[in-house]
Amino acid sequence: MLGPVLLAAARSDRIRRVVAAAPVTRPVVDRFVAGERLDESMAAVRALAARGMDVTLDFLGEDITDPAEALRTRDAYLRLAASLKDLGLGTRTEMSVKLSAFGQALTGGHDLALRNVTPVVEAAAEAGTTVTLDMEDHTTVDSTLAILRTLRERFPQTGAVLQSYLFRTEDDCRELAGAGSRVRLVKGAYKEPATVAFQDKREVDRAYVRCLKILMAGQGYPMIGSHDPRMVAIAQDLAHRSGRKPADYEFQMLFGIREAEQRRLVEEGHRMRVYVPYGTDWYGYFMRRLAERPANLTFFLRSLATRG
After folding, report:
1. Radius of gyration of the CA atoms of the chain, in A
2. Inter-residue contact 252 to 56 (CB < 8 Å)
3. CA–CA–CA angle 160, 254, 142 (5° rounding)
4. 216 close to 242: Cβ distance less than 8 angstroms
5. Beta strand ranges found along 67-181 (DSSP E)
6. d(C-alpha 225, C-alpha 213), whole Å
């Protein structure tokens, strides 16, 4: 299985240098990343909004090694929030953040990440939008959910991501299925040990459906983060059974993946939000996209062969 190999490669500096130096890499990355600059991401937002889609923006960066990098991430998101406010895009666009980019893994990282992300959440509220806390590997879950609870005391619209492949996630879904809660449910894209996560795809899928049932039956706002046609169909059925209207949930898919399906859902009257990453630190994100779907890896390898 190439997936685990690619996930391991996502944290390898040596492989990062090789991939980044390959001439063909940049055009392929452009399929999944909106650009390196803020203005490029705004162009993507406007284009998607014109097609009836909402957006969540992610300034790429994770696994930082010093507090100065965390401050740079904070400042990048503050610039993003200011741009959304100036352009009046807050009603169509939210922001996704990885707390590791705010210093979560450093010494005293929990408090550091909370301190750095709070002004970003404040700025998002001023821009008429909100923030969703991306979930990373299983060692970060408790800290991330604790930060979520703190932020929701002042900003109850702050969202979180839960990953169905973790054994604990059904319980986390029950905890976060209450009124006002916003949860993006995904399958999970990190290499996790068998002690904490399902390893078999069928088990992950079954867990996803169980979690989705909990969220749809609850009083919160489910965000279905999946490109899997089966999961999309199951989510539609569960929403109907739960008496949810299209405004009571949304679908989320990644920039550059299953674009025809994104358009189809919009045409059927569903709310579709596209996860749009931008920035120069694209490597880890790019490798996880290759690991998630064989079609992505095939696309990359075909491009390499064609260039060769």
Report:
1. 18
2. yes
3. 25
4. yes
5. 93-98, 131-134, 159-163
6. 14
In sequence order, the β-bridge partners of residue 161 are 184
Q: Which residues are catalytic?
A: 134, 184
Beta bridge partners, 277, equal 58
Q: How many other CB atoms are found less than 10 A from the CB of residue 68?
A: 9
* Rounded-to-integer distance, Cα 298 and Cα 119, Å: 41
Tens of pLDDT, residue by residue over 30-68, are 778 898 899 999 999 999 999 999 999 999 977 788 999
Residue 287: per-residue pLDDT:
72
Q: Read off the pLDDT of residues 214-251 as tens digits, 9 standing for 90 and up.
A: 999 999 999 999 999 999 999 999 999 999 999 999 99
94 CB contacts (<8 Å, ≥6 apart)?
54, 55, 56, 57, 124, 129, 130, 131, 132, 159, 273
> What's the rounded Cα separation, in Å, for the pair 180 and 113?
23
The encoded tokens of residue 98 equal: 């990885």
Rounded to an integer, what distance in angstroms lies between the CA atom of residue 271 and that of residue 52?
Answer: 8
Name the token pair of 235.
């989510």
Nearest to 29 by CA among 301, 282, 212, 260: 282
What's the whole-model pTM score? 0.87
Neighbour tally for 180: CB within 10 Å:
11
